[in-house]
Amino acid sequence: MDFKSEFFKYFLHWKWFVLSLILCLGIAFYFIVTITPTYQTSALLFIDKKQDEKTKIISNSSNSSEETSKEDNLEEEIRLVTSNDFLMKVVKVMNLNISYFEMVYKVQSKFVNEVPFIVRPTIDNDILPQITYTIKINKQGFTLTDPNTEKSFVVNGYKGTQLVDGLPFRILLSPKAMKNPSDYFDSEYLVSLEPNDVAQKKLKKALIVVSEEDSKGTIEINHIGSSPDRSRKILNEIIVLLDENIVMNKQKLYVNTVSYLNQRIKSFTKEKDSIESVKEKFLQNNDILVMDNYIVEKTADRSQKNENFNLNERQISLTNYAINDIRNSNGLKPLGTDYKLEATSINQMLLNYNTKLMESELILQRAQKNNPTYIALMTQLKSQRLEILNTLESYLNSLKQTNRANKTEQNVANSKAKSIPTNDKILGNINSNLNTKEETYTALLQKREEAILNGAILESNLKTLNSPVTNYTPIFPQPKSFLLGAFLLGLLLPFGIIYLNLQLDSKVHNEDDIHKVNANIPFLGFIPKANPNDKLDNTANSRSLIAEASRTLVSNIFYLLPGKNENIGKVILFTSSIQGEGKSFCAFHNAITLSNQNKKVLLIGADLRNPQQHEYFNLNKNEIGLVNYLFDNSIDWKSSLKKDTNFSSNLDILIAGEIPPNPTQLLTNSNFETLIEEAKSLYDFIILDTAPVQMVSDTLNFSHLADVTVYVSKFNYTDKRSLVQLNKFIKKEQLKNVGILINEVNLKSSYGYSYGINYGYEYQEKKVKKSWFKKA
């Protein structure tokens, strides 16, 4: 990127930059001088959140970490200060819906807190109209004016006894001003009224409440306003109300805490009594006095019942054995006495039986079996034996009945023993619930005592670290920032407009514009824009801009010429994209410049549709010219030539002549080519002023005759898209050996042209300029 070129694109418009800077800086300075400055007043508060932990109801370990993390969280206090209800209290306490100003200039007012009068609304502050009055004090009383309607109100007297229709307030002098009202006759004041809700919104907008991260537990309250004293009073009132709200909230917390604790204690008392009743019924229903004794008792009872059952079973077995043994005996042998029966009578009967049996054996030793004594004794033994068996049967039946009773008792004892774990678990749960309730009950009683103790010593945990202080450096408007911003705006505004204009501009301005579209086409130079009276000043000794530019153009055209055959004239064709780009003008000056260089030049007006060359030589356009020859080649075209007598004797002109109805057919016949071939042998250069190539095809039909094609574009007129079409002509070989020329360049409003032209003039002036000592 060529920064120098880009810079001068904008530097050409330096007047607009200067004008924009003057305008922006002037407006900024006027704004700074006339606007009422606003200041920031700040107060720093500290809220000890640790004191609030004393009033917490629950402080379990599960949430202790969470409470610790929220210890320094001041969002609740910040929300309170910025709440609508809180700010509405400030508005009502300080009457912020009424504002007083002292008129210093017509465009500036100074906010004041002390004015020599008092305004007392006669309607509710919530429905006050949003209106402003200017107030003047005079000998009769007060004169009030509504600036919007220019309606005036007159209040007679200074005591405020008069109620004026249309005024929503009474006005009276303050006690201080009542002493000497004339001191205030020359001053003009302004009072502004608004509803409370509007004042509350303004106050909320002017407040900035933040919590400092570095200093935990601190809140910074800022108020932005035009009156520092009023701002300090507002912050002081906010601090007072915040302190009252903190104490009030603590009182509410205390009352709610004690009420809640009483409610919970009452509820837990009922729950504890209910659990104790359940425990009592459970013990009664299960015949439990003490659970440990109950366990020992039921365990021992189960062991006893099992042992009794086992003993009874053993006796049954022994009894059955004894019965079988006695039945199987023949009655001649003694019965067994070791059956281990627990029936004493049976054991005795067995002993008696064995004793008699021994007696019968003794008798049998002394007598025969038929001995009456022996027979009687044997009959007696048989009876005893039957009696023993009957007794054993009875005993056995008794044992079986006892066995069934023992079995039932055993089952009951086992069942009660098995229910011991269940009863123990149930009783344990009951005792656990009862213990929990008793512990909670005890904790609630302790919390209630703590809450009552804290309620007796309630105090605010708010401390003012820094009282409201005003920074008297205005935060709006800030002169340096405003002036710097105005300076930047003054530069950026015209820069943006010029940049946008350059981006949207599709016209040709300089060589760079041409090279961006046609990089391979040579640039031949430019023709500066000149006044109509000066455009013909192109004589051999002329130093005009037109003459210098034309000479440069001729030099550049020489570089495009295919060869230097002195015997054959060179054909230079001038054309353009559309009409009005000045190709005829450029062809005219190029012909003059070449003729002034002792070259024999023929200038032909080949634009048969819109001929222009006759105007430059003050000729009648209907005179015989090219058209006549093309129509009838018997006419000698040399006889139609005009000599130039004003610029050079080496220049001949062949004008177009009358405009024909069929220019294309005339230019495509062989007559025109014959004319060119004849002219080459007579002239050094043949200059063709042709028709625009993008409008008609006339020029393209004979463009192959040209040695050099000069494609004329007009400064700030030719569209760049037309140069794209030129590339197509070149690729199709419809135009050959093309060079581009920019016409009517405005040297005063463009960059990149003046250096080459002014160099010659500066050099010439330096040659003729004499020093002071030579003049002397």
TrEMBL record:
Transmembrane segments: 12-33
Native source organism of the sequence: Flavobacterium franklandianum
Family: Belongs to the etk/wzc family. Belongs to the CpsD/CapB family.
Segments forming domain AAA: 570-734
GO cellular component, one term: plasma membrane
GO molecular function terms noted in the UniProt entry: ATP binding; non-membrane spanning protein tyrosine kinase activity
Cellular compartments annotated: Cell inner membrane
EC number of the protein: 2.7.10.2
Name recorded for this polypeptide: non-specific protein-tyrosine kinase
Keywords, in A-Z order: ATP-binding, Cell inner membrane, Cell membrane, Kinase, Membrane, Nucleotide-binding, Transferase, Transmembrane, Transmembrane helix, Tyrosine-protein kinase
PANTHER family (UniProt xref): FERRIC ENTEROBACTIN TRANSPORT PROTEIN FEPE (PTHR32309:SF13), TYROSINE-PROTEIN KINASE (PTHR32309)
Membrane protein topology class: Multi-pass membrane protein
Enzymatic reactions: L-tyrosyl-[protein] + ATP = O-phospho-L-tyrosyl-[protein] + ADP + H(+)
Domain Polysaccharide chain length determinant N-terminal residues, every copy: 13-92
